[in-house]
Automatic annotation (TrEMBL):
Single GO biological process annotation from the record: nucleobase-containing compound metabolic process
Name listed for the protein in its UniProt record: CMP/dCMP-type deaminase domain-containing protein
Origin superkingdom: Eukaryota
Listed Gene3D superfamilies: Cytidine Deaminase, domain 2 (3.40.140.10)
CMP/dCMP-type deaminase domain mapped to chain residues: 15-135
InterPro entries: CMP_dCMP_dom, Cytidine_deaminase-like
PROSITE patterns referenced in this protein's UniProt entry, alphabetically: CYT_DCMP_DEAMINASES_2 (PS51747)
Molecular functions per Gene Ontology: diaminohydroxyphosphoribosylaminopyrimidine deaminase activity
Taxonomy of the source species: Eukaryota, Fungi, Dikarya, Ascomycota, Pezizomycotina
């Protein structure tokens, strides 16, 4: 099922990264707080069209199996299409930088982003605190593959507050 096109509040450019990061933050707020994990929201956008089109949304633990927000976005999109479609340039918004290591041994989100392909920009709300993993190497891994990694100004403290709910 396609998420409904969001209502763009007056005065907000629909291609403004803050608009989509706010939607990702709204997703993060749906997470059931966890003492042992972060509460993150993500939005996957088709940035080849104007206005940009939301293709999938996700939040931590939304799907079964201790899922991460980015992972949920990919899973939902793959349910509709077996692979990323040619010619689409995807932009991913996530309230916290994608994980580069998971204590559970599951595939880190940064590797899922690289495997998905066609993602040209990852917007990030805040850095991953070193609560569970000492050093997040996602920035480096994405940069090595030519994927732009951009912070969204002014939203990091709220993203961090929501991410650490239940801690
Ligand atoms: Zn992750």
């Amino acid at each position: 099922m396609q998420p409904e096109a969001p209502h763009h509040p007056a005065g907000v450019d629909s291609d403004d990264p803050r608009f989509f990061m706010q939607l990702a933050l709204d997703e993060a707020k749906k997470c059931v707080p966890s003492q042992t994990a972060f509460s993150v929201g993500a939005v996957l956008v088709d940035s080849t069209v104007r206005p940009h089109k939301i293709l999938a949304t996700g939040f931590s633990r939304e799907l079964e199996g201790n899922t991460h927000a980015e992972e949920v976005c990919f899973t939902k999109l793959m349910r509709e299409a077996s692979s990323p479609r040619d010619g689409i340039e995807y932009t991913l918004y996530t309230t916290m930088e994608p994980c580069s290591e998971r204590l559970s041994g599951k595939k880190p989100c940064v590797d899922r982003i690289l495997e998905f392909g066609s993602i040209s920009i990852v917007y990030v709300g805040c850095q991953e605190p070193s609560t569970f993993v000492a050093e997040n190497t996602a920035t480096l891994k994405l940069a090595e593959q030519g994927i732009r990694y951009l912070p969204v100004d002014g939203m990091s403290s709220e993203c961090r507050d929501v991410a650490t709910r239940g801690h």
